[in-house]
Amino acid sequence: MKNMIFSFEGRISRKQYWLFNLVFIVGLAITGVISVITMGEPNDVAFVLFILIIIWPMFAMQVKRWHDRDKSGWWVLIGIIPVLGPIWALVENGFLAGTEGNNRFGSNPLKKNNLRNQ
Q1: Is residue 110 a contact partner of residue 6, using CB atoms and an 8 Å limit?
Q2: For the chain, what are the domain ranges?
Q3: Rounded Cα distance, 73 and 61, in Å
Q4: How far apart are CA 70 and CA 104, in angstroms?
Q5: Alpha-carbon separation of residue 85 from 89, 92, 95, 98, 108 (angstroms)
Q6: 5-61, pLDDT tens digit by residue?
Q7: pLDDT at 114 over 50
Q8: Are 69 and 28 in contact (CB under 8 A)?
């Protein structure tokens, strides 16, 4: 698990990508609820701390998803292009299947976990 979250090497499936994003969204919601309960209003400091904690794993997971598509991890930078970049990244990483079989970044994550195509 530590290697999956903190390493920029290898590949992950769409399912793993979406599960991580779900954890991220739930984490944001919990941070918001806790900051409202403790401060009486949303607290930017709590959100900034949460983002600082999760930013490395977010990049690691997205890079691995680009690897599954047989693209360089540098494609993560497409997200800085306004409007089009995040949409492109969402479609590529969230909806398009990875490379069948092994590619230059490693073995197929679906075969490794004995999962069917997603």
Answers
A1: no
A2: 2-112
A3: 10
A4: 7
A5: 6, 11, 15, 19, 26
A6: 889 999 999 999 999 999 999 999 998 888 888 877 777 888 888 999 999 999 999
A7: no
A8: no
